[in-house]
Every structure is written in structure tokens, then in C-alpha cells.
Fold this sequence. Notes:
The chain is of the alpha/beta class. It has 8 helices and 15 strands. It has 2 domains: 4-231, Nitrilase/N-carbamoyl-D-aminoacid amidohydrolase (4-Layer Sandwich); 235-294, no CATH class.
Amino acid sequence: MARNVKISLAMHQPISGDEPGRLRAALKSMGDCVDHSAALGSELVAFPEICAQFGSSDRWKFEGLDGPTLTAMAAKARRHGIYVVCPLPTMDGELRRNSSVLIGRDGVIVGVYHKNFPTHGELNVGIVPGTETPVFETDFGRVGLSICFDLNYWEIGSGLCANRAELVIWSSMWTGRRMMGKWAMEFGFHMGGVHAQAAAFIDMAGREVAHGERTVSDRTGATSLITATLDLDRRLLHHDYNIARLQPLYAKYGPAAASAEWIAEECMLIFGSRMDGIPNKTHATYVSHASYNSQHSKAPPGGGASLRKP
């Protein structure tokens, strides 16, 4: 039973300058991206790191979760019934954070991720690192978030894997396409990465599904979108002990029961159910590729359920 979800990534053009109304113009532009994504039939649209404030001479304008940025994006999410990933500088009580916020279809915040590995420049303005790698339930699957410099650190991907992410949205200020491929292949989840100049989708085998670059450059907030449909019911498995199970599976359910793509040179098997009403449950019954790589690792930041072993 394929679980297809259409996702949009918005390569939002920063609006530079410090004129009054700059933030209002940025939020108008971001809102147009949500409108466009909804018109395309997307279930979720994601923006680059600190999208609304980037371009200002002081990009670190911290807001509460009821501030202007999230209020504007929540209104758009509610209007269209679409999930929105909105990264921004936030105040977490008295703590300054670099955050990424998942807004639900009803305009209510589903969850907040705080960047675990801020840069030196961020630390210098008082940003406090996050310590957890939460994964959030949506009506189409389990979504994890990460931000820019996090991609350099194995423990972030491992934590998202342990918490059973199926899709990870990485909002950034650089491309990182090959590094996203490494995470996806090691930890077995789809990835969507987006920054102002480019965006890409990577499947769980580390292969590029789609890539786009923004070709318009001006101060009006002109933005390009790329959109892809991902099947979140597919699982990346190590081929050992799993290929032998396919023959009895097909014998029991028929030759069209499942899709199975064997990537022999990487010892990988991509598996997915094709039967209506019977979803893929391989995370519980098969040796996943991620657990093969990670089952002896230390507990990830933020804890979470351990990977199940066969």
C-alpha cells in the first residue's frame, strides 16, 4: 500500500535591507509560496533557515511562538489545510534558539526543533543549542527536522533514525546534497533539503529524486519551488537475511504483493507493500539497513525508542 506524499521546497529569495515593512514583505512572499504549494496539491511546504529574517542587517530578531512570522504562516496553513515548516529565531522561555517549527493543517504548532549545533557566530549572539532530535506525527507519516550545520554531525541523523523519522526536512544556508545522501543511506529516511539558492529531494538509498536552483535574483522575494512525490511506505533494508524472505512472501500474497528493489553493490534492498489495506511493517519484522549500521551506537540526543532488532 503506497503512502505517497507530495512535498514542496521553497527556495525563498531573501529580501535585503532594513526598510520599514521588510518583514511584512518577506511574510507576504512566504505566504505566496504556501498558496502556490497548496495549488500544486502539496501536503507540506518547507522554507530555508531563518527565512523571514535573512537579508536584514540583523538577522537575529528573536520571536515568540505567537510572533508575526508564525502567526502569518499558521494563517496560511489553516487556510489551505497544508503543513508548513518554518525556520526562525525563537525565544524558548529566556533562551535564544535557532528553531524550525512544524505547523499543522489547522494552523496549530505540531512541534518545534531547536538546532543542536549552532555555529560560532550563532553562539556569539547568545543562541543556546538544542539537545533533542524529536520526530513529529503527521497524518501522512513521521517527520523530523534539522537545520544547516546539524548535517555535519552523525548523532543528529542517528537520533532522528532512532525516533523513526520517515522524512527529514533540512533547512539550510548551503546545498549539502551529497551529505544528505549519506544521512539518507545510513539512516533509511527520505530527505528534503532547502536553502535560498537550491533545493533537493533524496530518497532513502541516498539517490537524488529531484533538484532545483532558483534562477530569479532580485529584492522582491521572488521564489522558486520544487515539488516531489515520495512513498513513505518504502523501507531501506540490508539485503542479508531479507532477500531469502521475498520468495515465501510472494508465494503467500502473489507476485504483485510488494515492490522490492535490490541494490546489490551497496547490500541494500528497498521494500514496499503494494497491497491495499496492508501497509509495510518491515520496521518491526526485518533487519533494517539503519539498525544494521546503528544498533551498537550510543543513545542519540533526546533519547527515543531504540531500534528494534530482529
